[in-house]
Amino acid sequence: MTSQPGDKIKILVIQGPTASGKTGLAIRLAEAIGGEIVNADSMQVYKGMDIGTAKPSKDLQNKVPHHLIDIVSPEQNFSVGDFRKEAVKAIADIHARGAKPIIVGGTGLYIRALLKGLAEVPPADDEYRMELQELLERKGGEFLLSQLALVDLVSATALHPNDHVRIIRALEVFRLTGKPISEFRGCHGFMTEDYSYLKIGIRVERAELYARINHRVEEMINDGFIDEVRGLLALGYGRELKSMRSIGYREICSYLSGETDLDKAVSLIKRNTRHYGKRQETWLRGDPEISWVEYPKSFDTIQNHVIAFFD
């Protein structure tokens, strides 16, 4: 496909809550249309974190080219800005070789930043962030969120007390600028559009989704997830790292440190993943651009729709 000056690259975006079947759909569509996959999952970027992030197997990665998987070490911070920069490069490379870019992942903020751009907020203040992290450990997420509500009620209302990363970032931005992060986002409006895109969202009934999540967690344990976490700790990747505080890893760390037993840890992973899936659904339902599909039931219809979009 040859671009004319001013033409926008066409990209397919596949979204859905965790365990909805995004990887399976993306692989089948990539094979059908000559596509390559760009990962938009905030955890699959980390090397060595395979089982707990439900990373596509090496066989699948060999079957269809994947980008932005295993690109940073667990101790490195990988921001939404980092994602956008790397994804833009990957998409340009895929397009230049005549293949079709397929963006796949459940991190909604990554996809919004790619498609709409990023607000110009200040860089991190590591010293103040450490102070907030210590405050979080002493007083908890509810307290931190209450402090955010005093200076940025718009952001505080939109955040869950467990969303520690975004609460800390919002407090940090206010400390650095005297302005709420919601003001930066409001001024920006997320209106930059560099691509022509088709968004597909996989719809799964809540009971079925929860059953899939529970089954996936059990498979993770059977596939060696505990040894994966034990190995990461042995390499010096401590529990304080952002990557190691993610769902699954933090619960297994608690088990390995003797703070809880395995049954309790597994139960917590299932519960926390279900809650995460519900939050993803809420985020996605607010996006009017998504075309909702049932997969694998409607694969032929999905495929025809995608082929028509790229033609």
TrEMBL record:
Cofactor(s) the protein requires to work: Mg(2+)
Annotated region described as Interaction with substrate tRNA, given as residue ranges: 41-44
GO terms of molecular function: ATP binding; tRNA dimethylallyltransferase activity
Entry keyword Electron transport: no
Binding site for ATP: G16, P17, T18, A19, S20, G21, K22, T23
InterPro entries, per database record: Dimethylallyltransferase (IPR039657), IPT (IPR018022), P-loop_NTPase (IPR027417)
Origin: domain of life: Bacteria
Residues the entry annotates as binding substrate: T18, A19, S20, G21, K22, T23
EC number from the UniProt entry: 2.5.1.75
Assembly information from the UniProt record: Monomer.
UniProt function note: Catalyzes the transfer of a dimethylallyl group onto the adenine at position 37 in tRNAs that read codons beginning with uridine, leading to the formation of N6-(dimethylallyl)adenosine (i(6)A).
Protein known as: tRNA dimethylallyltransferase
Species for this entry: Geoanaerobacter pelophilus
Gene name as annotated: miaA
